[in-house]
């Protein structure tokens, strides 16, 4: 017998589980469907982010940072450590436990908010009286009838043509998080967020890492000044970064992977590595959703087509997160999930794409929001820029991490903050102040006039704002 709900959410990643919880908070009867399982077959809600993305990668970045610190930086603090060894199984076990805690946390939140969870694959079946028929295929078969459906099925890693992931030699982000032994040599195709973060993890643990990027410029999505600093620092750390390359036919064997490529100068090159991480972007995941059955419209790249409010071409069917247009970021998905739940409830949910921050969790961290300097120049915007180096920040000196700077771009006439770019310690946390200022269309002067605690890294944001008016006090 079919079970009726006001809202059925397909997918329990950041967009899906947050949409389900918010809809339940607004008084609706809600179900959420997700097929992911952990090693023992139990439900593993949280999507790519929780299971093989944001959360486990940050756990491994933290562990590898500790290993790097004890090996290379503790002596600066007068701490002498001898005989350091790595227990990789323990490190990966800790990562798995962090993931499990997050899985269990989401299931708890479902229970707390009275969201009914179904462990299985959700598929559109038909339009019926009362809404949409959704079939759940899992350990048990269910039919749900939903007045509204939210598609939040996320994305999957993009493969190189003709090179499938086997997660042993050719690795996606999933396999890259569970390499059984530290490789002597590791190749990474793609110098984006995933490639740089995972490359950094294994470099710190002792691998020789080569990163191959097809684009001619390193981190072209970032402000050029930030990208230049990042390239210098990562290269000094030991990452071998090659840009402007063209990958040839990759050959695999039981023991190695050989990657031929043409470098930026046109010379034929080749690397042989123990494992190859392929991180060349992600593709929307709609397999098994039944889009053809009900006529749900997708574009030529496979994304579910939505309007500005995340409505699809079907009545009362919505879509959020990686499966639709816009940046493939967990926090973007969450904001869309909340907005859609509120729109279903008759409210006016809102997502400002202009103030969605981006972060790369390397060391140093990189974070930004708004326009880059090159974008402002292209658009012909008259702006002023101010920057402040962490080298001149007292807290950064005390931490022993003075790499990088804060850069603020403001409208030359109104002083409205148009973009903030940070490379340095705790950039992922510092960017929140910039997002807040920009959401309220604040000025650089507003940041400059706010009292920041001393000594803190956040003072560098204030000093960069002062520098927009050429009156930095500490540099």
From TrEMBL:
SUPFAM superfamilies: FAD/NAD(P)-binding domain, FAD/NAD-linked reductases, dimerisation (C-terminal) domain. The active site is at 454 (proton acceptor). It is an enzyme of class 1 (oxidoreductase). Its main location: cytoplasm. One of its GO terms (molecular function) is flavin adenine dinucleotide binding. The active site is a redox-active disulfide bond. Belongs to the class-I pyridine nucleotide-disulfide oxidoreductase family. This is Dihydrolipoyl dehydrogenase. It comes from Pusillimonas minor. The lineage of its organism: Bacteria, Pseudomonadati, Pseudomonadota, Betaproteobacteria, Burkholderiales. The gene is lpdA.
């Amino acid at each position: 017998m079919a079970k009726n709900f006001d809202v059925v959410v397909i997918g329990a990643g950041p967009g899906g589980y947050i949409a389900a919880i918010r809809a339940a908070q607004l008084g609706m009867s809600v179900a959420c469907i997700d097929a992911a399982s952990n090693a023992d077959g139990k439900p593993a809600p949280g999507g790519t982010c929780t299971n093989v993305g944001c959360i486990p990668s940050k756990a491994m970045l933290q562990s590898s940072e500790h290993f790097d610190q004890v090996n290379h930086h503790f002596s600066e603090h007068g701490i002498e450590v001898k005989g350091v060894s790595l227990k990789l199984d323990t490190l990966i076990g800790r990562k798995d436990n962090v993931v499990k805690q997050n899985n269990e946390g989401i299931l708890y939140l479902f229970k707390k908010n009275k969201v009914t969870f179904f462990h299985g694959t959700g598929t559109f079946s038909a339009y019926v009286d009362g809404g949409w028929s959704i079939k759940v295929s899992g350990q048990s078969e269910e039919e749900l009838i939903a007045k509204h459906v939210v598609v939040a099925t996320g994305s999957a890693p993009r493969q190189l043509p003709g090179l499938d992931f086997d997660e042993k030699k050719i690795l996606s982000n999933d396999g890259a998080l569970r390499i059984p032994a530290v490789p002597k040599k590791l190749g990474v195709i793609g110098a984006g967020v995933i490639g740089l973060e995972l490359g950094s993890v294994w470099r710190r643990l002792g691998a020789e890492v080569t990163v191959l990027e097809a684009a001619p410029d390193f981190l072209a999505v970032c402000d050029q000044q930030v990208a230049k600093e990042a390239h210098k620092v990562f290269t000094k750390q030991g990452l071998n970064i090659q840009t402007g390359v063209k990958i040839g036919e990759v050959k695999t064997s039981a023991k190695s992977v050989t990657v031929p490529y043409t470098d930026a100068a046109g010379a034929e090159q080749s690397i042989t590595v123990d494992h190859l991480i392929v991180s060349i972007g992600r593709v929307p995941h709609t397999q098994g959703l039944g889009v053809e059955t009900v006529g749900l419209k997708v574009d030529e790249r496979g994304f579910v087509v939505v309007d500005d409010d995340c409505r699809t071409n079907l009545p009362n069917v919505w879509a959020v997160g990686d499966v639709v247009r816009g940046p493939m970021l967990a926090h973007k998905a969450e904001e869309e999930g909340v907005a859609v739940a509120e729109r279903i409830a008759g409210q006016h949910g809102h997502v400002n794409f202009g103030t969605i921050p981006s972060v790369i969790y390397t060391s140093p961290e990189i974070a930004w929001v708004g326009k880059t300097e090159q974008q402002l120049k292209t658009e012909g915007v008259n702006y002023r820029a101010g920057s402040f180096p962490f080298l001149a920040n007292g807290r950064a000196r005390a931490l022993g991490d003075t790499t990088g700077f804060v850069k603020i771009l403001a409208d030359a006439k109104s002083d409205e903050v148009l973009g903030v770019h940070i490379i340095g310690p705790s950039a992922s946390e510092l960017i929140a102040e910039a997002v807040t200022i920009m959401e309220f269309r604040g000025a650089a002067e507003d940041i400059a006039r706010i009292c920041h605690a001393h000594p803190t890294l956040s003072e560098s944001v204030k000093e960069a704002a002062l520098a927009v008016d050429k009156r930095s006090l500490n540099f």
